[in-house]
Design goal:
With 271 residues, the protein is an all-alpha fold. It is built from 13 helices and no strands.
């Protein structure tokens, strides 16, 4: 299937998936599913040196497209966060919440069990535990040094691979999203290289484990992901609008995000 799709298609697909890397609330993995590329990407990343030529033909144009998307949209998003932070955040919250019903439905494809609740609570606990480490993550942010950036890179890696999770939204929960936009815009390699060193091995390891986990314990794994997402929503909540005009704009953008996410989520369920 992939061989019949040319370089232009893969580059364009990478650009679209890149939106999921930079727009909080949009899952790059879900976008890859919609494009029919999630399984081939996971297989290629999990074992990059097996049939490496074909893997390179698939992954290189995807990575190039995603990189172009990051460079183009990072400046736009940095401007929006600087000028209209609260309405922008409400748009992203709509994007996240719109995907939740579909994620719950997918988690319950084999029926709901009470034993899934501890898995959900474990996801919540993991998110709250990691984001409560101020000396390691939140206080330092991306300026916190090599260890901090490696850890945040690992967080990004998990968000890139697990369907339904948004890497950029997780960074918002850690208080580091806007700093990352600035690092991308300024090509600050003192931040980007350690992040990459955290992302790459995490993506490979998680890619190897995610298919097995979903096959062996689909419900528990799905509810663990839901717990992580629910915790990130709580941690990253921006607060309530302070004026009536801000309320109207923020709520309107929230509804727009909700509608967009619902449409994408319905499409992903048809794949």
């Amino acid at each position: 299937m992939i061989k019949r799709k040319g370089l232009t298609y893969r580059f364009a697909s990478g650009f679209v998936i890149g939106l999921g890397l930079i727009i909080p609330g949009v899952s790059g993995a879900v976008l890859a599913m919609i494009l029919g590329l999630y399984q081939p990407i996971i297989a290629a990343v999990a074992k990059p040196f097996t049939n490496w030529r074909e893997n390179l033909k698939l992954l290189a144009p995807l990575a190039l497209g995603a990189g172009v998307c990051l460079l183009l949209f990072s400046r736009v998003l940095e401007f929006l966060f600087a000028q209209y932070p609260l309405p922008t955040l409400y748009l992203f919250f709509g994007l996240v919440l719109g995907a939740l019903p579909t994620m719950v439905a997918l988690a319950n494809t084999k029926g709901f069990r009470l034993s899934y609740i501890p898995s959900f609570c474990l996801g919540l606990a993991l998110l709250f535990f990691i984001t409560s480490l101020p000396s390691v993550v939140r206080a330092g942010g991306l300026a916190g040094g090599m260890l901090t950036n490696l850890l945040l890179g690992a967080v990004v890696g998990v968000g890139l691979v697990v369907p339904g999770l948004s890497a950029s939204f997780l960074l918002m929960a850690f208080g580091s999203y806007e700093a990352l936009l600035g690092a991308v815009n300024q090509l600050d390699f003192s931040i980007l290289i350690p992040l990459g060193l955290g992302v790459v091995p995490t993506v490979i390891l998680v890619s190897r484990g995610i298919t097995w986990l979903f096959n062996q314990a689909h419900g528990h794994t799905s509810y663990l992901v839901l717990g992580l997402l629910g915790g990130s929503l709580f941690v990253a909540f921006p607060g309530w609008p302070r004026t009536f005009l801000e309320l109207v704009v923020a709520f309107s953008l929230f509804l727009v995000g909700l509608w967009i996410s619902t449409r994408f989520s319905r499409r992903s369920r048809e794949i």
